[in-house]
Write a structure and sequence with these properties.
Number of domains: 1
Helix content: over 70%
Number of helices: 3
Order of helices and strands: HHH
Number of strands: 0
Structural class: mainly alpha
Largest sheet: none
Shape: elongated
Radius of gyration: 14 Å
Amino acid sequence: MLKEAIGIIGLILIILGNLTIYRQKRIRKKYTYPLLIAGGIFLTIYSILIEDLIFVILQIIFILTAIYGLIKIHHRIKQNK
């Protein structure tokens, strides 16, 4: 039951992040990427708990991509100031 709850929380966070992805850069920086990263972490934990190596690898790549997006948008906002 705990495993499923962790997976569900991860999915909800990623869905919420995706719902905000086409908003202003300020909103994306504040909400989208942190939600995606947190959701990815929860799903990585879930993947470890269910012992699915492929999904663990994919989730790590997903988290790194979301971190890259956050850094990129942060850098753009800094340049525009």
